[in-house]
Specification:
Length: 243
């Protein structure tokens, strides 16, 4: 979309497209640059239809649990909720070393973190494009993006929320016509969507404010870098930025 926070995505960018499966996931992605997340380095990742990027293992669970998770699963939840891309929407991802995109990412991160000069050398861009919720009887969709990036020393994750129209799938007690109510998303909630990070170590986790409450629908207007709808975190070591 023009004027969008979102970095370019879609088949014309060379993106892979996830299969149309409720609670589905990408194939295992062999990371061409290993990614350090909360002190551990991972070589494989999955882009899961339910709004999670996980390391080492896929996540098919659709009702979000509050962080920290007890079972040690390390992952990023831009918007963990019960999505169903069979009913609508697409999930795209690509690894990239495209110089134009990396220059844009580098400029953005340097603007928000001026004390740490950063020149991205790699990124994984995952985009959920107008994805429907489980049990939907509406045309509502959520569009958001997660970008993992590094210069091989510092590791960042950018979360871009462009259009959030629902919080809860019907299996999580959401309303089929509105996609609201029930247990909202973990950007981190028991059936409401959750947003945030789980390091896998019991102690380090972060919930974006409003996670697991109906307020998460307003995530397109909130930020930790003064850009509505954008959240950026340095994730090689656990640091909470600007909250």
């Amino acid at each position: 979309p023009t004027g969008s926070l979102l970095y370019p995505y879609g088949p014309h960018q060379g993106d892979n497209t996830n299969p149309k499966h409720d609670d589905g996931t990408s194939e295992e992605i062999a990371l061409s640059v290993p990614f350090t997340f909360y002190g551990k380095t991972y070589k494989t990742a999955f882009v899961n239809n339910n709004g999670v990027i996980s390391f080492d293992y896929p996540v098919r669970q659709y009702t979000p649990d509050p962080f920290p998770l007890a079972d040690g699963r390390p992952f990023v939840a831009p918007y963990w909720a019960d999505m169903n891309n069979v009913l609508g929407g697409d999930i795209f991802y690509r690894q990239t070393t495209d110089s134009t995109l990396l220059a844009d990412i580098s400029q953005d991160i340097t603007q928000y973190f001026p004390k740490s000069p950063f020149t991205a050398t790699w990124a994984l861009v995952a985009t959920w494009d107008h994805v429907a919720y489980y049990g939907s009887s509406s045309q509502k969709g959520n569009t958001f993006q997660a970008v993992l990036t590094t210069d091989s020393k510092i590791f960042y994750i950018i979360l871009n929320y462009w259009d959030i129209q629902w919080t809860t799938g019907a299996a999580s007690d959401g309303d089929p016509e509105t996609g609201l109510g029930g247990t909202p998303a973990h950007v981190d909630s028991p059936s409401i969507f959750q947003a945030g990070f789980n390091s896998g170590d019991d102690t380090n986790f972060y919930n974006i404010p409003g996670s697991q409450t109906d307020a998460i629908i307003n995530i397109t207007t909130t930020s930790n870098v003064n850009v509505p709808g954008r959240w950026i975190f340095r994730v090689d070591d656990f640091q909470v930025t600007g909250v």
